[in-house]
Amino acid sequence: MELAPSILSADFSRLGEDVKQIENAGAHLIHVDVMDGHFVPNISYGATVMKSLCGRTQMPFDVHLMIENPDQYIGDFVTEQTEYITVHQEACRHINRTVQHIRSMDVKPGVAINPGTPVSALEYVLEDADLILIMSVNPGFGGQKFIPSAIRKAQELKGLREKYGLDFRIEIDGGINLANVKTVIDAGVEIIVAGSSVFKAEDVPARVQEFLDIFENRE
Length: 219
Known about the structure:
There is one protein chain. This protein has one domain: Aldolase class I (TIM Barrel, Alpha-Beta Barrel). Helices cover 30% and strands 20% of the residues. The chain has 7 helices and 8 strands, in the order βαβαββαββαβαβαα. Strands 1-8-7-6-5-4-3-2 form an 8-stranded parallel sheet. It starts with a strand and ends with a helix. InterPro entries: Aldolase_TIM, Ribul_P_3_epim, Ribul_P_3_epim-like, RibuloseP-bd_barrel. This is Ribulose-phosphate 3-epimerase. It catalyses: D-ribulose 5-phosphate = D-xylulose 5-phosphate. Keywords: Carbohydrate metabolism, Cobalt, Isomerase, Manganese, Metal-binding, Zinc.
């Protein structure tokens, strides 16, 4: 199990300090939500903000490109700390080619699906991806309510992974909090993205520890 707090919900006036807080508390990845105002109805930040954290933290970057024409920008997000770059199935006309493009840069490729996209849309890319990201809210804004159908998607992906002997990891993003995180873990999710529930907490390090305690004590 890994916790990937999303810096979309961090305080950008003290981003380095916020990231150091979650790192010292035991978080595993930095989730980097990139939005272009076209694929999703919001604009976040670009590669320059992410790269400003290089050397400020040892945590790897988990990049989530919620953008149109992601192939054009993938190279901008490749650093020595970039572990995953995830693109949306809905944004890629030739998803297999995009996945191979990411892998050619020595980065692990991921594919994300929106709440309205079925798992079946991924059937012929599962063997090429290192990560599948289930959106449990409609992408574009932080702080949204969790969409329960994401649980069934996680269960379905776990079943397909076992059926075909694959080794992709399952990640979930959107509306995850202390009340529902065990349910998604039980469904097969291994990487938990948490934005508002971490960075908007009164005590951020304590909140990270609460998530880690649930990971450690799950049945």
